[in-house]
Amino acid sequence: MTKRVELLAPAGDLNRGIIALDFGADAIYFGAQQYSLRARASNFTPDNIREISEYAHSKNKHIYLVANILCHEPMLPGFKPFLDNVMKYKPDAFISSDPFIISSIHKNYPEAQIHVSTQQSITNSKGALFFKKNGATRVILSREVSYDELKQMTKALNGAIEVETFVHGAVCIAYSGRCMLSNNFCFRDANIGGCAQSCRWQMSLFDGDKEISEYFTMSAKDMCQLQNTKKLIKANVASFKIEGRMKSEHYIATVVNDYRKTIDAYYDGVNPGKQYINDVAAAANRETSIAWFDGKPGIQQMLYHEEAKKVTQNFVFSITSKVNANTYVILSRNNFKLTDKFEILSQKQKDIVNIGVSKIVDKDGNEIEVAKTPMSVLTVTFEKDIDLLPNDIVRIKAK
Predict the structure, then answer these.
(1) Contact (Cβ atoms closer than 8 angstroms) between residue 388 and residue 325
(2) Mean pLDDT in the chain?
């Protein structure tokens, strides 16, 4: 049997990294506080890197350190000290795009695994082999590669270098993120991590002096390839990548869980139906499409006039610790009532669990009907016994 496809998830901070691993990611990727894009993500301190490395490796999972910034000249001298420092935390690979960074990692630490970032816009086998000759062990394909092109590419490579492809998340309207809108509009350079997402701004559209639309964006729908999981596995993709280092804990847990269950269903020979497609759609606040999967996308893949859609799942609390068979200490995240009907996204349970709550107790021991304050430590008793783990997600259906 060929090696199982890897599920790779984003980690915007330490807690989201732990949640991604707990809910089924085989590996996570994250940035340090230097040499990484996503400047608005929390990113990882040295202590964070050490902690997540120990946690992931204790579970036989991997961490990939993102050093994907495009280096301007003043950034060059600091990279070697940065590299020497992070290597002691044993990253399983680096994700990089700048030729200087790639060559520096390979020269100083030839044993290090290098994954070439999607920002290199690799769309063919010859490009992939070029980077293999320069020390890379994996290439992350441009989002603009269709399924047919991907199959041709993996066939031509014949296992010479691993191929990773995005399966879920944002799709930039500029080719592989090479965008100057943000820099021109507000002096925030997307290529050093400062993208203001100008393409998502609400604009007015004019034909000469005549306004023809009072709401217009240049934004693409997000990508979702859950329905194409089987095809991508058969195309010998090594890793499925989820985008979203700035997404919430609930979003990360939900998306990772749904892809984990869909991938496992394939290897178990089970048809998952549409349950995971429906579940991930409920957690998203943007419309999705299959992007470039079937070839060049048309207007149906764009959000020219659409508002962000309403999320139909509310993340209301997470499990902290177990008191007894049906009682748990929890951390509240949004308002919820005793009379709400809850569903649990659990690391252990195969399916979503629908359940009620019979008692809510505050930190002073008082029974309450409504939990009003986010980030409060409460005790919740469920209507039936259930085996849950720390970080399990509890949510309600939005009305």
Answers:
(1) no
(2) 90
- Inter-axis angle of helices 14-22 and 249-267, nearest 10: 30
Give the integer Cα–Cα distance in Å for 325 and 344. 16
pLDDT score of 92 more than 60: yes
Parallel, antiparallel, or unpaired: how do β-strands 93-96 and 114-116 relate? parallel
State the pTM of this model: 0.90
Nearest to 164 by CA among 241, 64, 102: 241
| Residue recorded with tokens 């029974």 | 367
% of the chain with per-residue pLDDT over 70 = 93
* Rg for the chain, CA atoms, rounded: 22
Give the type of residue at 34: Q
Q: What is the DSSP letter of 86?
A: H
Q: Do residues 309 and 287 lie in contact, with contact meaning Cβ atoms separated by under 8 Å?
A: yes
Name the residue among 54, 28, 25, 30 with its Cα closest to residue 42: 30
Phi, psi of 199 (to 5 degrees): -65, -20
* Vertex 363: Cα angle to 360 and 365 (nearest 5): 65
In this prediction, residues 304-318 reach a mean pLDDT of 73
For residues 230 and 266, the answer to whether their CB atoms sit within 8 Å is: yes
Q: Is the pLDDT of residue 222 over 80?
A: yes
DSSP 4-21: PPEEEEE-SSHHHHHHHH
Q: Which residues of 62-101 are buried (b: 16+ CB within 10 A; e: fewer)?
A: bbbbbbbbbbeeebeeebeebbeebbebebbbbbbbbeeb
Residue 8 neighbours by CB under 8 Å, 6+ apart: 25, 26, 27, 28, 29, 64, 164, 239, 240, 241, 242
Compute the distance between CA of residue 67 and CA of residue 80 in angstroms, rounded to an integer: 12
- The pairing of beta strand 27-31 with beta strand 6-10: parallel
Nearest Cα residue to 304 out of 396, 398, 378, 202: 202
d(CA 264, CA 69): 34
Length of the chain: 399
DSSP codes of every residue in 27-65: EEEEEBSSS-S-TTS--B-HHHHHHHHHHHHHTT-EEEE
By the 8 A CB rule, do 10 and 20 touch? yes
Q: Tokens standing for 7?
A: 């599920």
Pairing state of beta strands 313-324 and 327-332? antiparallel
pLDDT digits (tens, 9 = 90+) for 148-169: 999 999 999 999 999 999 999 9
